[in-house]
Amino acid sequence: MSNITFTMIKPDAVADGHIGAILGKIAEGGFKIKALKLTQLTVADAKKFYEVHAERPFYGELVEFMSSGPIVAAVLEKANAVEDFRTLIGATNPAEAAEGTIRKMFARSIGENAVHGSDSDENALIEAQFHFSGREIF
Ligand code: DAT
Ligand code: MG
């Protein structure tokens, strides 16, 4: 078990003005911020980040959406970070997400679902390194 996970506050939630509220939920959840920045994915970045989904029917709209505007990228630290963060964000589809979860509170739809959370310790490290250099992670 590793202690870090990677998250993005997605373009929908940034555009809807939810950066502060989502960072508040992350802090309340006991996560420590190890890296943080406002940035924007190019189409090529989004294709690469989500390449495991390349064969899925929603890949094109996912890439278009994720590169459509600024995001907040962050590396978070907590014991059992990957699993606990996925609990905090809720189900992929906000209609199925538990009350009080970030996606239930802030997502627009299954495609525009407010936040990303890594799905494994291995991917957390890969995703953190995709977005941040060593000197940006504290
Ligand atoms: P998660 O983000 O919960 O790990 P995922 O890895 O299965 O979900 O999919 C990555 C993203 O792709 C997801 O956050 C939103 C989008 N997506 C997933 N399923 C979708 C669907 N059925 N229609 C549209 N977008 C979808
Ligand atoms: Mg996923």
TrEMBL record:
One Gene Ontology MF term: metal ion binding
Subcellular location: Cytoplasm
EC number(s) per entry: 2.7.4.6
Catalytic activity: a ribonucleoside 5'-diphosphate + ATP = a ribonucleoside 5'-triphosphate + ADP; a 2'-deoxyribonucleoside 5'-diphosphate + ATP = a 2'-deoxyribonucleoside 5'-triphosphate + ADP
Catalytic-site annotation from UniProt: H116 (pros-phosphohistidine intermediate)
Keyword Magnesium: yes
Names of the cofactor(s): Mg(2+)
InterPro entries: NDK-like_dom, NDK-like_dom_sf, Nucleoside_diP_kinase
Class of this enzyme: transferase
Chain residues that bind ATP: K10, F58, R86, T92, R103, N113
UniProt KW Ribosomal protein keyword: no
Name this polypeptide is given: Nucleoside diphosphate kinase
